[in-house]
Amino acid sequence: METYFKKRYNSFKFAFRGLNSALRSEPHMRLHVLLAVGVVVAGFLFGVTATEWCLLVGCMGVVFMAEIFNTAIETVVNLVSPDFHPLAGKAKDLAAGAVLAAAIMAAVVGLIIFLPYVFSLVNNYL
Ligand SMILES: Nc1ncnc2c1ncn2[C@@H]1O[C@H](COP(=O)(O)OP(=O)(O)OP(=O)(O)O)[C@@H](O)[C@H]1O
């Protein structure tokens, strides 16, 4: 039983090490976190609904996840193919494309949620 809990504890420890490594080594990851903080601040300022919070948090999670997978794929590609190879390039381009797709979708969801709040704020001041 102790071994079971020790293994689970280690799994979490390794996963947090992965998160820490992504944050420390990836400038893009830090940018995503900065943008997410901006979204959370805007969410509180505009008083978005519970459903809107769920959508925003879901989008942030998908972007973080895509960026971390992208980093993992880049790392493995660098390990197995340090020299130039078209397939290595394709794998990295695909992983980067996944991040871009997630970021575009998150931006669209953000605009759909926040634009009406911004418009009503502007209308109140006009
Ligand atoms: N071993 C390789 N063989 C062929 N093309 C490669 C190789 N390594 C990188 N590339 C090409 O260069 C691009 C940039 O690769 P790089 O490893 O610099 O990632 P990056 O853009 O710095 O990623 P990030 O900024 O997320 O760390 C890749 O998307 C790919 O097109």
Automatic annotation (TrEMBL):
Keyword Membrane: yes
Subcellular location: Cell membrane
Membrane-spanning intervals of the chain: 31-49, 55-73, 94-119
Membrane topology: Multi-pass membrane protein
Residues that coordinate or bind ATP: 26, 74, 92-93
Residues of the active site: 67 (proton acceptor)
Cofactor(s) listed in the protein's UniProt record: Mg(2+)
Cofactor notes: Mn(2+), Zn(2+), Cd(2+) and Co(2+) support activity to lesser extents.
GO biological process terms held by the UniProt record: phospholipid biosynthetic process
Residues binding substrate: 67
Annotated binding of a divalent metal cation, by residue: 26, 74
Main location: membrane
Annotated Gene Ontology cellular component terms: plasma membrane
GO molecular function (one): kinase activity
Keywords annotated in UniProt: ATP-binding, Cell membrane, Kinase, Lipid biosynthesis, Lipid metabolism, Magnesium, Membrane, Metal-binding, Nucleotide-binding, Phospholipid biosynthesis, Phospholipid metabolism, Transferase, Transmembrane, Transmembrane helix
Pfam families the record matches: DAGK_prokar
Superkingdom of the source species: Bacteria
Family label: Belongs to the bacterial diacylglycerol kinase family.
Name of this chain's protein: Diacylglycerol kinase family protein
Organism: Pontibacter qinzhouensis
